[in-house]
Automatic annotation (TrEMBL):
<dbReference type="Pfam" id="PF18165">
    <property type="entry name" value="pP_pnuc_1"/>
</dbReference>
<feature type="domain" description="Predicted pPIWI-associating nuclease group 2">
    <location>
        <begin position="163"/>
        <end position="277"/>
    </location>
</feature>
<dbReference type="InterPro" id="IPR040556">
    <property type="entry name" value="pP_pnuc_1"/>
</dbReference>
<dbReference type="Pfam" id="PF18166">
    <property type="entry name" value="pP_pnuc_2"/>
</dbReference>
<dbReference type="InterPro" id="IPR041584">
    <property type="entry name" value="Put_pPIWI_pnuc_2"/>
</dbReference>
<protein>
    <submittedName>
        <fullName>Uncharacterized protein</fullName>
    </submittedName>
</protein>
<feature type="domain" description="Predicted pPIWI-associating nuclease">
    <location>
        <begin position="18"/>
        <end position="147"/>
    </location>
</feature>
Amino acid sequence: MKYECVSQELRDYADGSNDDFVKALCTGIERLLPDSESPVRLNLIASCFRELLTYQLDCLAAHAAVQQCPWYVQDPTAQAATRRQRLRFAISGGLPDAALGTLGFDEPASIAELADHYKEASKYTHVRPDRINHSDDEVGDFVLAGVTALTGLREEIDYLCDNVKEHLRDAISEHALQKFLETELDELDILSTHTRVECPYVDEIDVEKIDHAYVYVNVTGDVNVELVYGSRSDFRRGDGATLNDSFPFQVSLRSPVNNLENFETTQQIKVDTSSWYE
């Protein structure tokens, strides 16, 4: 079996990570691939894959966090959260089944694929006489299946975040408008005698994380304002003036995993009015 395709998949996965340990394990696996003279080539690769998944789960799904999720039920055969439960948390945090259903999100195939691949990796890691001297095809298939499943996990995380963003966009827009109406913003008020907020437009929604209790989002956009100069009497005399303008804004929010449209502000609205002074 030629390994160019498998090696490229490994490099692509490594390039998508900013973690040096992940990159090092992928490099190690790639260097082991062509060593067909080693009777324990697959065993060493399997060990790297098992530790790679374990490390990823430790980063994304700590046992304590998983056990605080509203959907968590202790498996009577396990002492802590199972691997499948940790994989679910890595993808969707504490979002309960009802919320996932609303988002149109079923259990990803990558959960079963990674759980099964971990079992197979564990089998090869425990070296026995009948578990050495694997063919090129066996080695290539094992690595390709593993990196495909890991890539699937990353894609499922991105896919869920995209679903959350689109589902919450209207509710976030309404919340942003309400916050603009009820919050005095010095950076806007200083621009005129009276500043009226007309409408904020949400541009980007970034799902920063989903933990056991909340979905955290960072929101950016532009707010349209009417700048009023002069009092009512000034306007009656024809001395008042109005000007329309817009400025970029940013706000950080969070919502409970079991009530996604109930937002609270974690970082107050910031409006960038620097363009006004240019």
